[in-house]
Structure formats: structure tokens, C-alpha cells
User: Fold these one by one.
Assistant:
Number 1:
Amino acid sequence: MRGFFFRKCDRCSGTSIAPGHESPEDPCTQCGGVGSYSVSQLEPDIVFACGISDALDIGEYNALSDGNKAALHIILSLGFVNLAEGTNSKLALWAMFDENSTTRVNLLTLLAEAQNG
Ligand SMILES: [Zn+2]
């Protein structure tokens, strides 16, 4: 999610400069001098659906039941997918791909990258 900025910082109003200062050398501490927040800063467990698609092991995908494939296709159609604990998307994906699967390992890597901004 790095670089995907969408909400103006409420402390510096998007100027990226600390309130009361006039120089870029005094960056806003709330947004880190960026002027806005990224998806990952606001919702650290949200990933792009294309990342989930790339995380799929094709052999594991092919082995899914038709019902699981249909559920997976709905998840991929979301665009952004929230993989926070307890979400339907995460529960479904974790049920489809066990902890020893290549897809689960790839999804955990994807999630860790999102959480690290
Ligand atoms: Zn700011």
C-alpha cells in the first residue's frame, strides 16, 4: 500500500509543515511531513485484491471446491480486502488455505508488507 495516499492530514491540513511553522524543515509530526495518510496507516490490515491474486498458488487454487472458488472470486472482486482478525474475508481465506500452504504463507507476507506501510 506504500504511496497510496488518500486522506488529508487533520493536523497540518495537508501542508505537511508543522502548525505554527513555515519551513519544510519543520515537518508535521502527525503525518511525517507527507500531508496525508495512506490506506495502510489508517487500516493496516487492508490489502489490494491483486496482491491476493498474486499470492495464490495455482495448484492450491485448482484444488479448491467450486464453492470455495466462488467465495474467493467475491473476495477478489472487492478491490481492497480487509484481512483484519475476524473479517469474513480472512476467515474464508484461512479456511481455504491451511497454515502449511504456499498461499497462506504468501498471504501472511502480503499482510506483513501492508502493516509495515
Ligand atoms: Zn500533517
Number 2:
Amino acid sequence: MATLDSDISRDVISHQEHRGSGAIHVIMGPMFSGKSTSLLRRIKSEISIGKSVAMVKSSKDTRYAKDSVVTHDGIGFPCWALPDLMSFPDIFGHDAYAKLDVIGIDEAQFFGDLYEFCCKVADDDGKTVIVAGLDGDYLRRSFGAVLDIIPIADSVTKLNARCEVCGQKAFFTLRKTCDTKTELIGGADVYMPVCRKHYVNNQALIKPSKEVLDSDKARRESCWRQLLL
Ligand SMILES: [Zn+2]
């Protein structure tokens, strides 16, 4: 009994030592801005200094591979594809989770429990979490819970892409199709990065055109390409 008590108190002390010793770093920006590449670079840098790391991404994102984070330029890294984050310690194994120093999360906008998980990892468990995700959707609305974790983050990096029309810095993602679902997963076939000028100009064209096209389904497929060119 005495042993059990001392084990429990040692666990409690060990747990308390971890409290508040973690960190949260956020990498955000539009599509094609190098978020996954930047996340992988930081993860590899942690590995190079001997840290134990794990990568997680949403199981909704199966664009390139089911069990790896792959950047748009095709570089991959093994990861866990999960429907939510809070189940990660159970799936990964609690002993293995306890030994982790760093957790990388890609496509973080798809996780509804992002805020809760980041609090747990950094505040309670003393680990570093590096989060990469879209800050806004194709209508420039806040996407998922990525912006919610800014108040609890140590650092926030907003990356930019290059505008596909003019080559200037691009901060927004333009959808090329008529689909209005917020979570439409796709790559360069569906989305393109654009600067403010080309976002605003194309949205002005898309809005009135969409009302006409909604009543003419046969023409839907060809509409946006014509508008964007
Ligand atoms: Zn532009």
C-alpha cells in the first residue's frame, strides 16, 4: 500500500512538473503557401536535436497519402491520420504519448477539438505542439478552430503564396469550382492562391454569375475556368 501511495504521489509530482512547460506554435496562411513544408522543416529540426516527435493530420485529408503528411512538392513524412485529436493518446498508446516531446498537426482547420487538445498538450502535459492550417476558407471566413488558438500560442507565423494571376504575394485561397461546401478538399484543380486585387476582382465576377449558373446546372463545370482566365 505504501508503495502504491508513493507511486501515485510520484506520478502526481511528475505530472505537476510538466504543467505549463509546453509551447504552441501556429503556422497559417492560404493554400500553396508552404505550411506543410514549414511544419516538416520544424519537425525535422526537433528530431535533429534528439526530440521525440509525432505527426498528426485529419483523416478527412486523403489527397496524397493516407498515412503521411505530404507537401505540394511531394515530400512526405509518416503521420497518424485521425478523425479527432483528443483520441490521439489512446490510439498512440499512453506510455508512448508520455515520452513524446513534440506533436505536429497538419491541416489543423479540420479538427473541431484543436483548442482543447492544444491546451492539454502544452498546459497539462508539457509538450510542444506545432500547428499548421488554413486561417481562412475560400470566402475568407475563419476556418475551423485555427484562429481560436492564437490567444494561447507562443508564436504565430502567417505565410503567403504567389498569386497565380500576377505573381504578387497571395494571402487568400480562391475556389475555382461552383461548389459552396466549406470543406471541399482538393488541390490545384479546385483552388488557387491569389493576391487581394485578384481575389476581390474574381469574387465580384463570381457572385452575380453564380446566381445565373445555379439555375443552369449544365453550364456549371465550365464556368469558373472561363471567369478566371
Ligand atoms: Zn494577383
